[in-house]
Amino acid sequence: MVGLITVGSRRQFFILVPLFIIFGIGVVSRTLRTITPNVACTTSNFSGEFVSGEQLGYYQGEELFVPEMIAEIPNDSVSVLGVTNPLEKWIEIDLSEQTLRAWEGSSLFLETLVSTGLPWWPTPQGEFRVWAKIRAAKMEGGEGRYYYNLPNVPYVMYFENSNIPGSRGFGLHGTYWHNDFGKEQSNGCVDLPISMAEKLYFWVTPDLSLAGSSVFSSPENPGTKIVIHE
């Protein structure tokens, strides 16, 4: 008979409904996690000044020692505002190779392994510009086992474009909390060896003043182009 519901079918119905509800919640949760904008490595202090006494950081469930080496590096390697190169500087980041190459026109200036964002906190692809350079910054974020609290992150170069605003906190920076470059590791930023980050920091624009520890791009002092691709 059409529409007849037996005892057995009712039992199956009451078993299946909760399963469908649980499955639906899981799908929605994963979807929201995918479309929620990632905030990568923001900081609340843009002075760029190294903070003495910050000796402990926290990364992936472990305390770690914060090195003092950046405090000892003099500010005498800066590029002076107004001195320009006829060949455009630009940075290429290959997500599949986990490499960064810095170019002056078609001439290679620097190449290094990097660590970009984990699959659930990906580094965005596209063409960007450096909008701020911060000599040292405290960064805190992530969640669960990926929570981090990292004082004095050195040589930070934040980038943005019309689709990815600077408030999302994506940038390049030196890394003292791991040495496992060539693998995805970060919350969306591009982790570099400190020696490579230092060279890049003083090479890219916007140019720093001789005594500066932070600088923001402007029409007169624009930021270097960054191209990120797979």
UniProtKB/TrEMBL annotation:
A GO biological-process term: peptidoglycan-protein cross-linking
Domain of life: Bacteria
Assigned GO CC terms: extracellular region
UniProt keyword Membrane present: yes
Entry-linked InterPro entries: LD-transpeptidase, LD_TPept_cat_dom, Transpep_catalytic_dom
Pathway(s) per entry: Cell wall biogenesis; peptidoglycan biosynthesis
Protein name per its UniProtKB record: L,D-TPase catalytic domain-containing protein
